Amino acid sequence: MKQATIGIGDRVAYSVRWLRSVGETRGDLPRLRGTVEQLIPFGGAGRALAGIKWDHHPPHEVRDEDDTHDHAMPGLYRVLDANLTLISRIGADSALNT
């Protein structure tokens, strides 16, 4: 079972592999940096959804599934842990423009 490689308090960015897979190699998305504030088990394979507070990202609102309650979660976004890399690994992660 693969375990999440990130933890609460870790500084993260989107992984180069994921950015390339969705064609986002330029612009703001590859430059986002943030802090993991929450980990939610996801999928039963050791995966997790990470609640990320991005350093410079506009706030958004999350609605309940029944659309009855708004919950402001400024800057907190849920991202699959497999799509993130630790900022300390960015030098080890392949360069975006290679």
**Overall mean pLDDT:** 76
Strand content bin: 35-45%
Trace the largest sheet across and list its strands: 6-3-2-1-7
Number of domain units? 1
The global form is globular
List low-pLDDT spans.
68-73, 92-98
- Radius of gyration, in Å, reads 14 Å
Quaternary class: single chain
Sheet of most strands: 5 strands, antiparallel
Helix count?
A: 1
Computed structural class: mainly beta
Query: Can you count the beta strands?
Result: 7
Order of helices and strands: EHEEEEEE
Classify the helix fraction into a percent range: under 10%
List the helices and strands and how they pair.
Elements: E1 11-14, H1 16-21, E2 34-42, E3 47-54, E4 60-63, E5 70-73, E6 76-80, E7 84-86
Antiparallel strand pairs: 1-2, 1-7, 2-3, 3-6, 4-5
Could you list some keywords that capture this structure?
disordered C terminus; globular; 98 residues; 1 helix; mainly beta
Would you give an account of this structure?
With 98 residues, this protein is mainly beta. It has one domain (11-89). 6% of the residues lie in helices and 38% in strands. The chain is built from one helix and seven strands. The strands form two sheets. A five-stranded antiparallel beta sheet has the order 6-3-2-1-7.
